Amino acid sequence: MITRFITEVSTTFNPFLPRAKTARLFLSFLPPNARQTMKIDTNLLPRTSRDPSFIKLKFKDGKQMKLDAEKLGIKGVVEEVDRHSRILSRQEELNGN
Amino acid sequence: MPPRIHPPSRAIASIPKKRRHVRSQRQYATAAAITPAAPHEQMTKSPPPIARYPPTQPPSYKPPEFRKSQLLRQYASLLRSTPLMLLFQHNNLKANEWVGIRRELSAALQKVDAARVSPVHPPEPLADAIKMQIIQTGIFAAALRVVEFYKPESRPSTLDPTDPSTPSSAAVPVFTQSGDQLTHTLSKAAHEAVADTRTAHALAPLLSGPLCLLTFPNVSPQHMKAALSILSPSPPRFPAPTRRANPGWHDAAIQSGLQKLLLLGARVEGKVFDLEGAKWVGSIDGGLDGLRAQLVAMLQGIGGGVTNTLESAGRSIYFTAEGRRTMLEDEQKEASRETAKQK
User: Fold this and answer.
1) Which of A31, A35, A43 is nearest to A7 (CA)?
2) C-alpha distance from residue A39 to each of B181, B222, B231 (Å)
3) Nearest CA in chain A to B92
4) Residue B206 and residue A40: Cβ atoms within 8 Å?
5) Which of the two ends of chain B, N or C, has the fewest CB atoms closer than 10 A to its terminal CB?
6) Statement to judge: residues B204 and B235 lie in one domain
7) In a domain, B47, yes or no
8) Where is this region: Disordered (chain B) (predicted)?
């Protein structure tokens, strides 16, 4: 997963629901120095809550993304993130940085 | 040149030599050999049964030479022996962050131990036994199912067939090669009992992704409180150590490591707690002893009240009767005085 262009991550999930696995795996996919380069906010719901888990992302170009983690699955989330990150990396390359 | 073979020393020479009977006559094997009769004991008693395996290594359904089988055993024994454990998700912590976190944790727990020595109770040093370990989630889930859902009714017999004191008439269970009657963690019975309970346990959804455990050998809320205030501080109940009291905790490496640790839940004496529940367990004042003291105080208060209530009735009766008696006595005295005057 390309994480260079993410500036903000905020997730909410109830770990006792099996479908929260996506959000948790997404957090574990972030690199070790992620807390220095982006703002990460994790909100754990109590065990009884049935609220859906979601991942909110902000990119360097200001694009915001709200991903429904329950439907997409971890592969889908990674695909969505990479789709936008590749565009950003191509722009970066073309600008000659 | 001295002789190479030394003559026997005097001490050895003094030992009387066994006399060997040298047969002068030779016998041929073709002669009718007389088989000596079996000794009497062998005729009356059967020989002790032979164990087909060492008692510490019963036959196993899962291949015991694999690492995952041994991990399953290890996790099952951990689950059976650990009443209190906290589950954390660790997101890409580095080695030096782990080292720092473990160091700070053990320092804080040692402090709790030192504080607990002072009361009258015998000190139980728990700090060394509280460990943080990363687990293989799939195998841990399997071990959890075995521990929670597989309760064999018949304990395996403790008879050791190789022990000479075992009576030979004792019925030592004879295990078949497939190990049908075994009940240990790796046995076929355990495997089949938990085969269809994959999602049945409340902790099952938590067991995915990178996970680590903090295990306590005893339910000790004080230690848990210290651990929580180090690992996931939340200001009102679990304040982080101040910079002056514990400057090491504020190191950059430890802080960046702690940001990546995520407390998910707890398992306390077989029950599953979420984040709030874990914090509640940690916030029990004074630990189990504190709870017991509260209970005792409450019961004593009730006892005192009950005795007061019960006594009060008796007391009032006593006072009434006593008052009546003195009254009667006074009347009698007056009556006797009056009769004396009349005489």
Assistant:
1) A35
2) 57, 33, 20
3) A32
4) no
5) N
6) yes
7) no
8) 1-62
Output B311 or B255, whichever has higher pLDDT: B255
Architecture of domain A6-94: 3-Layer(aba) Sandwich (3.40)
| Chain B nearest C-alpha distance from A96 (Å) | 32
Domain membership of residue B206 as a residue range: 67-152+176-284
**Closest A-chain CA to B258:** A35
Q: Is residue B123 part of a domain?
A: yes
Cβ(A25)–Cβ(B89) under 8 Å? no
What ipTM does this complex have? Answer: 0.90
Query: Are B226 and B309 in a shared domain?
Result: no
Q: Do you know the residue count of chain B?
A: 343
Q: Please check whether residues B245 and B303 belong to one and the same domain.
A: no
User: CATH number, domain at B202?
Assistant: 3.30.70.1730
**Rounded to whole angstroms, what are the CA distances from B261 to A11, B37, B75, B98, B222?**
15, 76, 22, 10, 21
pTM of the model: 0.72
Asked whether A5 and A59 are in contact (CB, 8 A), the reply is: yes
Order across the sheet with A54-59: list the strands.
A39-44, A6-13, A54-59, A64-68
Stretch B81-100: mean pLDDT: 92
Q: Which of A6, A39, A28 lies closest to B92, judged by CA?
A: A28
CB atoms A16 and B202 under 8 Å: yes
Confidence band of B117 (pLDDT split at 50, 70, 90): confident
Output the pLDDT for position B179: 54
- DSSP letter at B53 equals S
Is residue B98 included in any domain, yes or no?
Answer: yes
For B284-312, b where at least 16 C-beta lie within 10 A, e where not — what string? beebeeeeeeeeeeeeeeeeeeeeeeeee
CA-atom Rg of chain A in angstroms: 14
Q: Is residue B300, in this structure, part of any structural domain at all?
A: yes
